[in-house]
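Input record (one chain):
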Amino acid sequence: MNNNCKEIRVLTEILQVKDLTITEKIILSQIDALDHKEGCFASNKYFAELFLLSKTQISKIISDLKKKGWISVKYVNKENTRAVDKRIIKINRPPYPTRVKEGIKAEDNTPIKPQFKDNNKYINNKNSYMNYEQRDYSNFDWESLYANNPENMKKFYDNF
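The corresponding structure, as predicted from the sequence alone:
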């Protein structure tokens, strides 16, 4: 197999979908990565070799993704025959989460909820950290924390 795939990225939005298995999420992400506006032309054999699955398993996963509405599949036949020349898999948007490359759009200007407006006032207030009283560790037995302390080892083995 001549595969140039170095990594597979799965969007957080896809990972958080509850009705997909992890394998479906990974294959959906790979279909998205291979879709260059024309669609994904990868065969079941390509996916089977990439993910070390059988072609039958890949076919079932693609059928399940289609049934769940995540992808659409179009078959292009050879001229004057019913034989399939190529398969085009496209990701449906929606229900697939859309990615915004240019940032938040102007119409998505949702106001900040009042309870979240000043949520960092304690972090930015440097004086709030100076009010904590200092604990006195002068009489604390620090050697009791060491695992290789002979007394601790004796206590440990005596309990067995």
